[in-house]
């Protein structure tokens, strides 16, 4: 396709508008009063290719907000029916994806990722012999469609003389997932259970396509769900090498549109080649979860997040990304939530004063979040236009009704 050129604030506004549409954040147009009829949870996972999911509760909303009219129960159903799984397809970080996509992504990324933590595995005294023993235990226990919790697997390992202390157990699961054996599958109470990937979700396509085919699909699918994006964005997101990324781009270049913005090449799927998608309306305000692909899907986040507010998204630079208020494509604040079985309470912490229109839009999104959870959702007593931090001690960043990722966030543990 021919290359177009643009620059300045107008180009940035257009880029953000396009990303909201491409990422299916801007809702599809539908008759007044009709909220359903959009894509399902599995369609969202397939469209985005991978959705960051080390914080389970936030990732559930990342899927749900892109499937208008869906509920938390719908996400659980997609997990329980093997339409969507959770594993570590890239960056050593948990993501939601479809099972078939997980397999070919691991064929490209796993070896490099595992090599990158070899020193840590030596510190933990984990070697090929230990991993092989753990693999045999998992296969024997799970073959035929079985499942077990993390704690149950740890107990099996301990019974066989394999210590799971000091993060050894977490890294064993992580290694077996990168080996393509295990994934997090069905819900079990407020947790997910571990299953054998191929037993739980048998392949419906060649699980090991040739390398060029996989590289081409990696670039094409990333751009389809995240464009406009740069090759540098893709390299950061996928952790592929520049050479592999360039190879993938060359293989699909005729299916993409290139735009030069201030001297940098951005890529989008050619509309003539893209899968059919309903028209989308330009909603002004969105309540996005922390770790959302809208921010973490790119190496350069400066278009959506002003540099002076970046530290507000990750307080203390602790790696925990707060939920985000987005207005016209720009991140303008954070929000927190407290969820009980009967209600959800949300508080806004804008970077600067929100306009009345943005306050109204945010309230609308909070109500939608409540419908997704299946409980009434209200905004806590804090003036969202004043930029003050709420004092309600019950307003927390974690949803007690959904699990944190089973491997769980301890220092040095895979996320």
UniProtKB/TrEMBL annotation:
Q: Does the keyword DNA-binding apply?
A: yes
Q: Which GO terms describe its molecular function?
A: DNA binding
* UniProt key word Ribonucleoprotein: no
Annotated stretches, region: Disordered = 383-415
Instruction: Name the domain of life.
Output: Bacteria
**Which UniProt keywords are present, listed alphabetically?**
DNA-binding
Composition bias type Low complexity, residue spans: 383-393
Protein's name according to its UniProt entry: Winged helix DNA-binding domain-containing protein
Taxonomic lineage of this organism? Bacteria, Bacillati, Actinomycetota, Actinomycetes, Micrococcales
């Amino acid at each position: 396709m021919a290359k177009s050129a643009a620059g300045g604030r107008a180009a940035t506004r257009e880029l953000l508008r396009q990303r909201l549409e491409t990422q299916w954040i801007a809702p599809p147009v539908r008759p007044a009063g009709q909220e359903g009829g959009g894509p399902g949870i599995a369609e969202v996972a397939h469209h985005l290719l991978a959705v960051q999911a080390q914080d389970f509760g936030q990732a559930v909303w990342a899927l749900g907000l892109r499937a208008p009219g869906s509920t938390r129960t719908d996400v659980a159903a997609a997990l329980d029916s093997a339409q969507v799984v959770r594993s570590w397809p890239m960056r050593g970080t948990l993501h939601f994806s479809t099972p078939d996509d997980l397999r070919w992504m691991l064929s490209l990324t796993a070896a490099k990722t595992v090599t990158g933590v070899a020193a840590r595995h030596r510190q933990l005294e984990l070697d090929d012999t230990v991993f092989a023993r753990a693999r045999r235990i998992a296969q024997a226990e799970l073959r035929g469609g079985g499942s077990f919790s993390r704690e149950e697997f740890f107990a099996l390992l301990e019974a066989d003389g394999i210590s799971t202390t000091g993060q050894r157990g977490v890294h064993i699961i992580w290694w077996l997932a990168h080996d393509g054996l295990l994934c997090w599958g069905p819900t079990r109470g407020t947790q997910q259970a571990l299953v054998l990937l191929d037993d739980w979700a048998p392949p419906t396509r060649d699980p090991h396509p040739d390398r060029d085919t996989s590289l081409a699909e990696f670039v094409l699918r990333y751009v389809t769900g995240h464009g406009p994006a740069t090759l540098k964005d893709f390299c950061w997101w996928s952790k592929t090498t520049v050479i592999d990324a360039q190879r993938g781009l060359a293989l699909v270049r005729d299916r993409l549109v290139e735009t030069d913005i201030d001297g940098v090449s951005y890529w989008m799927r050619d509309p003539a080649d893209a899968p059919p998608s309903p028209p989308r309306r330009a909603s002004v305000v969105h309540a996005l979860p922390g770790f959302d692909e809208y921010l973490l899907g790119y190496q350069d986040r400066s278009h959506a997040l002003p540099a002076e507010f970046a530290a507000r998204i990750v307080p203390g630079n602790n790696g925990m990304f707060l939920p985000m208020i987005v207005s016209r494509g720009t991140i303008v604040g954070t929000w927190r939530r407290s969820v009980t079985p009967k209600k959800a309470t949300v508080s806004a912490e804008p970077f600067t004063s929100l306009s009345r229109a943005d306050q109204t839009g945010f309230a609308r999104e909070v109500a939608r979040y409540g419908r997704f959870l299946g409980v009434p959702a209200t905004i806590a007593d804090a003036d969202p236009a004043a930029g003050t931090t709420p004092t309600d001690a019950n307003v927390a960043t974690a949803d007690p009704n959904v699990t944190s990722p089973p491997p769980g966030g301890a220092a040095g543990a895979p996320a």
